[in-house]
Amino acid sequence: MRFPTWIPLVVLASCGGAAGETPPRAGSGATLAASVPEPVARPFPAHRIERRSVKLRFDLNGRPFPLPLLHGTVAGVPVWMLVDTGANSHVIASWVARKVGLPLRPLGDVGSDHTGHSMTAYAVEHPGVVIDGWGALPDGLMLVTDVPEAIAGIGIGAFISPQWLAGDGEGIVLDLAAHEMASAPWEDAARELVERGGVALAPDGARLCAGGGGPIRGASFVLPASVDGRKVDLLVDTGAQRTDLLTTSAAGELLVGRSSPSREQMYAASGLVRTRLVRAAHVKVGRWSVSTDIDLVPGVADPACPRDGVVSMDVLASCTLLVGQKRLLGACWSR
Questions:
Q1: Which of 34-38, 177-181, 213-217 holds the top average pLDDT?
Q2: Quick check: is 1 in a domain?
Q3: Is 57 inside any structural domain?
Q4: What is the distance between the alpha carbons of residues 209 and 16, in angstroms, rounded to a whole number?
Q5: What is the CATH number of the domain that holds 295?
Q6: What are the tens digits of pLDDT across the range 279-298?
């Protein structure tokens, strides 16, 4: 996840066994992604949901915000929630958990941030998470992690992984252009997506990164893509405003020569990250292509979910994503 420019840019990563990615810039933010190991309790409960829909918000505290938001409560405390496909499970910010007095079970260093540095996380039982206009999330074990003060300061207290809102045989439709999230039977939603036309974002589906056996199951999606003609694998991340490549990736190394130091500040869980900016890169995902500025981010890929970077809202803003616990489809339309 990442966040907009009227706050400092923050990034925390996602992918691996169980959590997501970043906020501050009018464009980018923070990703919280941790790979949860094999130990402790039972997995997050499977569930079915009724058909429902809710509007996505793209404003925060009276200002435009580049990332999809929902409002809701954690144990009765009102918070903003980021809708983050890069988060491979639902995540509660530790400032909220501590404010409401939720008992935290330390999990230790269970994963890594966007730069490959380890992250500390906690598990909490019965967090009482409710999305306004949608309803309560299943009352099971949920991940808690620390977030930068910039995120807490604007009231973002949870990160919703839409793939984990879907029950068996169901999908979650993220219509980013229409600012709407809805649930539907998978086959019905997939057929409607095809009938609407558009440019296929994932014509051959997506690679699933799934965490196995741990206390909290994780799922995120990686798509084959290209940046300036170089083949890459990109994590689908609605929690980040700007597409990025890791500097250690083959494509990232080749693009360093035409990049310049970014003037924006980006933070990972491990601290300040120095990034570089590549202007007007040609990004193609599936059959959808755009020209956009991208970031080069120092760090290494999570071995649990190998990738070269993330594809974010700068590319996805006019797309509709259909996500489930194990699959992803998408189509995009020119504005």
A1: 177-181
A2: no
A3: no
A4: 6
A5: 2.40.70.10
A6: 999 999 999 999 999 999 99
Determine whether 213 is exposed, middle or buried from the number of CB atoms within 10 Å of its CB (0-12, 13-18, 19+).
Answer: exposed
- What is the count of structural domains for the chain? 1
Q: Are 282 and 289 in contact (CB under 8 A)?
A: yes
Residues 12 and 147: beta-carbon distance below 8 Å: yes
Whole-number Å distance between alpha carbons of 150 and 190: 38
Residue written as token pair 């699933």? 208
d(CA 145, CA 123): 9
Q: Which residue type sits at 115? A: T
**Secondary structure letter of residue 316 according to DSSP:** H
Maximal CA-CA distance, the chain: 51
Q: Where are the alpha helices (DSSP H) in 23-84?
A: none
Side chain identity, residue 97: A
Through-space distance between the first and last CA atoms of the chain, rounded to whole angstroms: 24
Asked if 1 contacts 67 with a C-beta cutoff of 8 angstroms, the reply is yes
* In-domain check, residue 248: yes
Three-state SS at 193: helix
Q: Give the integer Cα–Cα distance in Å for 17 and 38.
A: 9
94 inside domain: no
Find the domain containing 276 and state its range: 170-262+271-332
Contact yes or no for 86/237 (Cβ under 8 A): yes
- Classify the phi-psi angles of 332: left when phi > 0, otherwise alpha if psi is within -120 to 50, otherwise beta: beta
- Which residue is it, tokens 């929630």? 81
What is the tens place of the pLDDT at every residue in 75-100?
999 999 999 999 888 999 999 999 99
Handedness of CA 121, 46, 54, 206 (dihedral sign): positive
Residue position matching structure tokens 């990738």:
307
Q: How far apart are CA 245 and CA 46, in angstroms?
A: 34
Global pTM reads 0.85
